[in-house]
């Protein structure tokens, strides 16, 4: 009948798992999503809302590529068909599961870079080489506190127009 499609941005809470089902192999994983908003009590700081969890199933090529590409903790964007399922736990209490059948997914490029390789072009990875200058750690947006880098720096906090940076690093004085 009518299907609801949604797009969810979040982080994987565990590595994807490949399973065998009635209609072939598929990949499942769980995504946690929370909303980041300005902290009214501490201007310039941001706070995360309690997380929402989504059980994602990916079939055929999408599932195969997800199992090859995604790992726990990585930021992802998932677009797919939404299902909300009611169930009863072992202790008799009611529960609700929010599930997505992924139509498309990938890494969230706001937090890093990724490389694209076509399925037919999969080849062994080249040997790793040490970088000339080790990169500076950017921090973990899931656990570190971040503020908006406002080059103006005067007056009330500006709307979210700059990049999120750890406090004390990259802020205008």
UniProtKB/TrEMBL annotation:
This is Single-stranded DNA-binding protein. Residues 124-138, 154-166 have a biased composition (Pro residues). It comes from Phycicoccus endophyticus. The keyword DNA-binding applies. The keyword DNA-binding applies. It comes from the Bacteria. One of its GO terms (molecular function) is single-stranded DNA binding. Residues 122-173 are annotated as: Disordered. Keywords: DNA-binding.
